[in-house]
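User: Second chain of the day. Same drill as before.
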Amino acid sequence: MGELTSNIAVITGAASGIGKASALALASKGAKVALFDIDAKELKNVQAEIENSGGEAIAFETDVSDPESIKYAIEQTVQKWEQIDIAFVNAGINGRVAPIETLSPLDWNTTIETNLRSTFLTVHYCVPFMKKNGGSIVITSSINGNRTFSNIGMSAYSTSKAGQVAFGKMAALELAKYKIRVNMICPGSISTNIDENTFPDEDKLKDVRIPVEYPKGNQPLENKPGEPEQVADLVCFLSSKASSHITGTKIYIDGAESLL
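Assistant: Same format as last time:
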């Protein structure tokens, strides 16, 4: 306890899964956390859990793909706590899973805007409040689009995740002079509720699926999907002084799943 005391953390997608686990972990280490998510009910539950454990949290119902929504939440956070030291850019969806020829432009845009545009927006609005003291930005990317390309039908998702890594590396160099570190984590299969935001077109996918049996979700290290808390431990490390010389780096956390 106390490793991150006096730090202010912003977390998108904080109502569940990796975002929730990371919010609880950061708070347990002394950080004050601002929780952003579109799910207001679950967001309040996370806030209550943190406060009941002796931590400090505020919550904002936020559409991370909307500039005004994310800007308001960040400005309100600074108005309350005067600074931002940690930005965990985590919100995302799998979106529509379909062949390229049947994936609609709307479905493409929804995934890109929710995952990639929101990454830019969150960093864009956090940076002015991080420049004075420096800090850490952690972006949740994925093995998909960076080391795995066998998930047929996920062209929009994989493109958004590859884009996050490129953006993060550009940001790491641009923001280095302000002592703002930027790193990207690439989880494999993690036990979360992201499948609720996944919409597969099974009939159409049959036409383009490659006839090779891939060990989907098989992770040699533990032979099961990872847990959000394991990712949260990595987020805490990248947010702390223990990682003070690490920036512009993508880190895989997938139990060797993507090496198969």
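The chain has one domain: 8-259.

User: Great, on to the next one.
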